[in-house]
Automatic annotation (TrEMBL):
Signal peptide (residue range): none
Name the record gives this protein: F1 capsule-anchoring protein
Residue ranges crossing the lipid bilayer per the database entry: none
Gene Ontology CC terms, in alphabetical order: cell outer membrane
A biological process term (GO) from this entry: pilus assembly
GO terms for MF: fimbrial usher porin activity
UniProt cross-references to InterPro entries, sorted A to Z: Fimb_usher
Amino acid sequence: MASLHKALYFGGALISQNYYSHSLGIGQRLNQFGDVTFNHQYSSITSAEQGQVNGEKLRLHYVANFNKANASIRLNGEYYLQPHFNDFNNYAYNAKTDYYCCDYYKKEYGFDFSLSALIGTSQSLSLNINQEKYKEDQGKRTFYSLKFMQNTVNLSYDLDLSYYQYPTQKNEMLFGITFRIPLKRMGVDNTSLNLGYSYNPYDHYQTELGVSGRHLDNNLNYRVTSARANRARQVIRRVPITAMLRVNRLSDTSLEQTMRFTRRTAQVHWLPTRRGLP
């Protein structure tokens, strides 16, 4: 890793049994306009079922915090040079089936945009737009989300309105509410008990019960949730575990780097759906 004129050059490789990946990139501070990184990522898997499975993509990431406006912007864009890119989490999760890709997941590009702002001393509003474009005849899928958050000392809640747009299937709208109870009075700081419920006008609803928290000066965020969903009279249970580690200073001129790890466990039943449960 080397830096020159506020630029950061970074890279790394991961080697495991039947798996290899590397990432090479460059980042740049834009002073009050935020930070931007651009990198090339490649993965290769040796599969007894499929032979050699290669994936390759270019990634652009931009983040900016505007303190005077109490707002922040994040943009992540990806372009796939080879469609079957697998990070190590995907590889580990799919290793039990030894199958790592299919024709449906031939992604061409994707992007994720989010805008967050404080609208009061204890209220915030966020907008998220996510789109994925697939090759051949799969078209593109677009997701819109608007979330309102109210924070108080003893009880907080989130209101979420989401809209899913599909190329060939019926679009979906989802309403959700999540209550968060801080556990500080029980001696557990920066941790809350969460109860959520979501519903769409079709045949799906979901309840969630979980715990989330922040530690290491807010650089480590985690969430453990038990979810139960009903769709078309089928019951789906799952326990997703999500953690995010933010490293603020890798060097004097480093950019903020974010790593996300997600693993799904205890899947009693799984059904392919238009939306696909996260």
